[in-house]
């Protein structure tokens, strides 16, 4: 098992945001967390990446406890987080942003090779390599934040609302990119989305979060046929 979360609770100033969540990610897997605003999706990702620590429960990555580690230690173990709202460095160029994604790595030659690989993978970023990130479109910035995360050579990628605020045609493209990253780079993905249709279509397994708890879980295909999921999250 690559990642195992066992019954974690997270509190912000004594208010529970997660009330006992368990989930599993296998090597090379793609799972999704769907749910409405405030359900605890981002908090789950922030807890995995060490930005917040659970008050109860455990998180293991390749068998090792990580729930007390700092974010840089978690990153070094192979978990990269693309946060909500794509926090790229606006005053740096695309290529500078990508290189920063590899700041934890010492293997400089391999970093340059991976940079080429990421640029091959995102032709749009190669075209805009020397453009300031702040002047890039929303879709390009999303590609940049995913590309930057890949530069740390993660085993597990945490993606928080990658489709948010993007036009439908760009969403389709980002969706393809996420699928390719998972298949071709062999990177496992935890995908957080309000776009439940996109998320369930891409993922093997899904968890529906409601006010800090897992309301339903199951194979993504099954969830798409689930009456409650269809009504509450797929608008059918
Ligand atoms: N830094 C914080 N301080 C206090 N409360 C917080 C903080 N961050 C999140 N919360 C609360 O924790 C709960 C879960 O928030 P979270 O951001 O994880 O939800 P979400 O599912 O990602 O929602 P959205 O779809 O709106 O992004 C919410 O009630 C939120 O108000
Ligand atoms: Mg969120």
Describe the structure.
The protein has 236 residues and is an alpha/beta fold. The chain has one domain: 3-Layer(aba) Sandwich (Rossmann fold). Helices cover 38% and strands 27% of the residues. The protein is built from 10 helices and 10 strands. It has helices at 41-48, 71-77, 94-100, 108-121, 123-127, 138-150, 168-184, 196-202, 220-224, 227-232, and strands at 3-12, 15-25, 30-35, 56-61, 64-65, 79-82, 156-160, 188-193, 205-210, 213-219. The strands form 2 sheets. A 6-stranded mixed beta sheet has the order 6-7-8-3-9-10, sandwiched between helices. Helix 3 runs parallel beside helix 6. The protein is globular and about 45 Å long. The mean pLDDT is 95. Bound molecules: adenosine-5'-triphosphate and magnesium ion.
Spatially, the strands of the biggest sheet line up as 6-7-8-3-9-10
Structural shape: globular
Spell out which ligands are present: adenosine-5'-triphosphate, magnesium ion
Number of strands: 10
CATH-defined topology: Rossmann fold
Q: Concise description?
A:
38% of the residues lie in helices and 27% in strands. The protein has 236 residues and is an alpha/beta fold.
């Amino acid at each position: 098992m690559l990642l195992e979360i066992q019954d974690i609770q997270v509190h912000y100033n004594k208010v529970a945001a997660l009330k006992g969540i368990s989930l599993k990610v296998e090597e090379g897997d793609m799972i999704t967390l769907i749910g409405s605003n405030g359900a605890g999706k981002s908090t789950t990702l922030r807890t995995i990446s060490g930005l917040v620590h659970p008050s109860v429960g455990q998180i293991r990555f390749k068998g090792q406890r990580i729930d007390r580690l700092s974010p840089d230690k978690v990153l070094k173990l192979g978990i990269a987080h693309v946060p909500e709202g794509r926090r790229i460095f606006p005053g740096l160029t695309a290529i500078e942003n990508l290189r920063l994604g590899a700041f934890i790595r010492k293997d400089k030659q391999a970093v340059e090779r991976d940079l080429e690989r990421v640029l091959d993978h995102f032709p749009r970023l190669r075209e805009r390599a020397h453009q300031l990130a702040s002047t890039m479109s929303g879709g390009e910035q999303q590609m940049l934040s995913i590309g930057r995360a890949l530069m740390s050579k993660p085993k597990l990628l945490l993606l928080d609302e990658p489709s948010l605020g993007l036009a439908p045609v760009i969403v389709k493209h980002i969706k393809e990119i996420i699928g390719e990253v998972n298949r071709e780079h062999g990177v496992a993905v935890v995908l957080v989305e309000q776009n439940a249709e996109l998320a369930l279509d891409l993922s093997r397994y899904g968890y529906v979060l409601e006010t800090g708890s897992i309301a339903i879980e199951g194979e993504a295909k099954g969830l798409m046929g689930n009456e409650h999921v269809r009504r509450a999250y797929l608008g059918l």
